[in-house]
Amino acid sequence: MTDYVRLSWCLLLFLMIYVSLRLGFAAAWDRMSLRRRLSVRGDSVPETKRMSRPLRGMGKLQSHTADLLSAARWSIGPEAFFATSGMMGLGGAAGGMALFQTPRSAALLGLMLGLLPYVLLRMRLVNRQMAARLEFLPAVELFYQCYLLTGGRQIRVALQKTVEERRLPGEVQAVFEQLARNLTVRSDDEESVRRFCLAFGHTWADHFANILMVALAEGNPIGPNLKELIDDMRKAQLANQQERHRLLEIRIANFAPALFLGLFMAVNFRLNPEGSYRSYIMDPTGRGMLLNAVALLFGSLIMGIYLSRKKL
Hints:
This protein is mainly alpha-helical and about 300 residues long. Helices cover about 85% and strands about 0% of the residues.
């Protein structure tokens, strides 16, 4: 069994080094190529065409991850995000094999650590969405006023004027600034609006984005549509307040099991330190039980994030 563990450890270590070097060289080469293109013709190439070679075939997955990273305003790119997830997954698998010495434990710990960056990204995005959702109505009202001042035609000018007013709360101000900047410097309006929707994460933002897309694509006046949207949002404010309480209940329920587990372990180690150490740390069955408990907590956290997205 010892030789099997040592062989598995060496194999996982080799895979970690291989993946990190491959993705590192690919990201460096892609950055060098991008700098050469920028020095020749400026930043006119859409981001979707600047995909690194090892990730070119991942298509929708990379686009989805890039949208989430942009909406959460994380400064890393999809390549670095995938590399971090892969390294953490391989490190978890190696640690699981070393600590628990069973393939099941190695796979379970590797899966949890590999998914951890995505879970943290989703948690960050949900926190930003909850902070921004209550201020979305005042932001749309301000945009509507700026849109009427521009004559009811210039969407980009109205967005820029909305941002320059500096009357929005910090979180919403940053999202509208990102939308105005992306619509100015990027050629893909659909991608910019899609990331704007992700930053808010509710149906009202989707309706507002659909109105913007119609105006950007066809140039039709959207004043009546905006006024109707604002009226509907005002009527729905009471329901939104009730949803906030449900979201708070979900967030409390997410961390309650971890709190009880920590309390249970602390009481056991306080009453019987030596016996608890032998049972939970030295005994392979006890370590496996703790790993299963952590896996269940991780699963409940993912379920809580999913329910929070549904409620948003």
